[in-house]
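lol forgot to send this yesterday, sorry. struct tokens for the thing we talked abt
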């Protein structure tokens, strides 16, 4: 038998796919030990109501990306998925993830949306670091 092991964890939203007013998926990341924002994975498609609610919690990057050379990957499956909008890495979200990671330490499968953790609830500085001992 095959069993999928999942855990609930936090990540920081760094970009979205689809329209900025109702994101289709969230592209997630965490900071590494030297302070660079690293892509960790994406969410599954969000329901429209969730996408519209999350849009109100995000601030688009109007001047420049939060980190020079930041690149997010995403699989293009629906029209509009290829459109990526970088956002300020300020919103922490709780997601369910498969414990399987790829060779770079990213989530191998899309994360399942649980809830936002805005503002004082959980600041980005308190999210587990990418490649920390707890991460693996």
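and heres what i got for the seq, position by position
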């Amino acid at each position: 038998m095959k069993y999928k092991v999942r855990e609930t964890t936090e990540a920081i939203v760094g970009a979205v796919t689809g329209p900025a007013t109702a994101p289709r998926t969230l592209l997630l990341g965490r900071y590494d030990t030297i302070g660079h924002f690293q892509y960790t994975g994406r969410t599954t498609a969000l329901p429209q109501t969730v996408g519209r609610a999350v849009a109100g919690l995000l601030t688009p990057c109007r001047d420049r990306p939060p980190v020079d050379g930041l690149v997010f990957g995403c699989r293009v499956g629906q029209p509009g998925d290829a459109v990526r909008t970088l956002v300020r890495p300020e919103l922490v979200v709780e997601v369910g993830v498969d414990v399987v990671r790829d060779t770079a330490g990213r989530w191998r499968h899309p994360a399942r949306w649980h809830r936002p953790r805005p503002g004082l609830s959980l600041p980005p500085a308190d999210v587990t670091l990418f490649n920390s001992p707890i991460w693996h």
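The chain has one helix and six strands. anyway ping me if u want another try
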